[in-house]
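Journal club prep — side note

Before the paper discussion, L.F. wants everyone to see what a predicted structure for a comparable chain looks like in token form. Sequence:
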Amino acid sequence: MNEQYYVAEQEPEPPNGTPWWLPWLLRAVGAALVVGILVIGWGVLRNKIEGWADSVGVAAGESEVVLGTPVEFSIPDGASARSISKILRDTGVITDARKFEKTVTESGVASQLRAGEYTLPAGSSFDDVVALLIKGPPGKDVFRLTVIEGLRIEQMLGSVAEASGLTVAELESALLSGEVTSEYLPAEIPEGSSPLVAWEGLLAPDTYEFVVGATPADILQTLATTLEGRIDAQDWSKLEAAGFTPYDGLVIASLIEKEAKLEEDRP
């Protein structure tokens, strides 16, 4: 009877003097290299995909804008050329962020692009966008307000109303409602007096510039804060030593100024 014997294959023994663990180490290193190559390859591929997405305007949350539609956008202070390019792309002002970034970088104007609020049509040309961002945001409309010295509070509010387009009633409301504050506002006023009397002498005469659309409180608080600064810059020690407050000093100065104005008006 013929008997068949099978001998299990055995891995070749390493040459004499070779550590038993070396083959396993070599296999582990080889596996690590394969994994590393795969990771690097995926990173390169992902960068290419993201670059393609940037170039064609694919961005998370990007809204479609009809060409020619006015688009409002904001460029923050310190924004890089890349950040600006993405803002323009995401808002629909341009369609190719990578090309815009390359254009402003290679032309040397990237550092000249200015922060601010802008409006441009969707799909604007690079030349138009660059020209506007270098020029800077358009200035806001302002009006000039001149408040002369020696006016009573009612007269002063009339001047403010005439220059600003606001009504005297709106200005009075801002003063009496507490929207406008002053650390020198007296706690009490003479009995029977108009509540506005408390604000006599607390709004600084001067020439100011305000943005069109400024609220009554914005305007009057500026005048009140300016007057506070002038009071704080004075030395009231002698007046206080005589038992008066800075507010008393303002009233006295206001009376003297009114008398001087009357003298000038006399024939």
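L.F.'s comment for the group: Residues 28 and 34 are 10 Å apart (CA to CA). Keep this in mind when we get to the figures.
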